[in-house]
Design brief:
By secondary structure, the chain is mainly beta. The chain has a single domain, classed as Tachylectin-2, Chain A (5 Propeller). It has 4 helices and 29 strands. The protein has a 5-stranded antiparallel β-sheet, with no helix packed on it. Strands 3-4-5-6 form a 4-stranded antiparallel β-sheet. A 4-stranded antiparallel β-sheet has the order 7-8-9-10, with no helix packed on it.
Length: 372
């Protein structure tokens, strides 16, 4: 059997400052890990605290600066708040313990792995949802941060994610609007660590099916998410030793496809073919072009208005587990043929606005018509 992560020491996060290119055009990076505050130590042992498996970029405290959320395995999670200023340079401060993100609802550090962040709660578009895949017999986490709050709460049990996810060991974790109705679903890639786990624990398997938690809209007191039965998830129901999970429109047909990697097996490319009814749904893909400053797209928020309804997407270059993401946001529009407006808030706090736009794909540049 593999030993738990509690049996080995932690490590330190690294931050490299991009100082631009030298005379030969070679990028120059400077290690600013200690100075920037990303090196975090155990307060008792003074040893490195990180056992990180996933991270996402998002403005957590609504100060127009991009923060970093880090999922750690069996030690507290980090919420690195961006305290950077022109005079002091890049600076982060870990506020996970204070805002409720560090531990689970019982104050315990979980086997946190994959992580994603989205404005996925149907009752309040301003609420930030952070999903984290955990070890077997630990429910996946669904931390919620309302727009006017400084504290997160894990609502996985009340919002339909907790109980169905408990038996599974989850790595990849992704929010994506699978049915193009404007609400993002939660998809999880599952698979155990122990090849012989079925011989040791009743009900456990090495290869496990992936899960889809449908965004129901949460009418009244109903949970926001409901797990789809395996019969409704197609190839995702085929067991795999799941690890990385990525979502994108791979074939350019306007809906979300998935890529799932499996330990000891070939990656799976899962094309969404839909139904005649679902193929009538429309979508808008907003691709971000930050020009010579690609970092402006990291943590950017894309907001659209369509028929009076507002949708938001967070663009993070890292999502899920061992997954990179293109700087693109996809919006399901139901049967709409256009959106009223698009607004991109870049990571430096500036914004770009675009007027009425037809469905399909649009590129939004960080250069023209920018405003504070």
């Amino acid at each position: 059997a593999y030993g738990p992560p509690t049996g080995f020491g932690g490590t330190l996060a690294r931050f490299y400052l991009n100082n631009g290119n030298d005379a030969n055009g070679t990028p120059q990076f400077v290690n600013q890990s200690a100075a920037s505050g990303v090196e975090i130590f155990n307060a008792s042992t003074k040893t490195p605290a990180a056992k990180s498996l996933g991270l996402v970029f998002a403005d957590i405290n609504h100060d127009f600066k991009v923060d970093v959320l880090i999922a750690n395995d069996r030690v507290r999670k980090f919420a690195l708040f961006n305290r950077s200023t022109p005079s002091e340079g890049v600076l982060f401060e870990d506020g996970a313990a204070a805002n409720g993100f560090a531990f689970d609802r019982d104050g315990i550090a979980t086997g946190a792995m994959g992580i994603d962040v989205a404005h996925a709660m149907p009752k309040d578009i301003g609420t930030l949802a952070v999903a984290i895949g955990n070890f077997a017999q630990e429910p996946s986490a669904l931390y919620l941060l309302p727009a006017l709050s400084a504290s997160m709460t894990d609502a996985s049990l009340t919002e339909g994610v907790g109980a169905p996810s408990r038996p599974f060991l989850t790595f990849g974790t992704v929010f994506a609007d699978l049915d193009l109705d404007g609400r993002e679903e939660l998809i999880q890639a599952n698979g155990h660590l122990e090849p012989t786990i079925a011989e040791l624990q009743v009900g456990q398997t090495y290869a496990q099916r992936a899960q889809v938690f449908w965004n129901t809209g949460g009418e009244g007191s109903a949970p926001a998410f409901s797990e789809l039965s395996p019969e409704k998830t197609g190839a995702l129901a085929v067991p795999a030793v799941g690890r990385a999970l990525a979502a994108a429109d791979l074939d350019g047909d306007g809906d979300i496809d998935l890529v799932l990697t499996a330990l000891g097996g070939a990656p799976r490319v899962l094309e969404q073919i839909g139904t005649p009814a679902s193929r009538e749904q429309s979508s808008l893909v907003v691709a971000l072009d930050a020009g010579a400053m690609p970092g402006l797209a990291a943590g950017a928020v894309v907001e659209i208005v369509c028929s009076g309804s507002v949708q938001r997407r967070i663009v993070s270059p890292t999502r899920s587990y061992l997954t990179a993401q293109e700087p693109v946001a996809m919006f399901g529009l139901g049967g709409a043929k256009s959106v009223d407006s698009i607004r991109v808030r870049w990571s430096d706090g500036t914004s770009t606005e675009v007027g009425a736009t037809p469905v399909g794909r649009v590129v939004v540049s960080a250069t023209p018509k920018r405003s504070p």
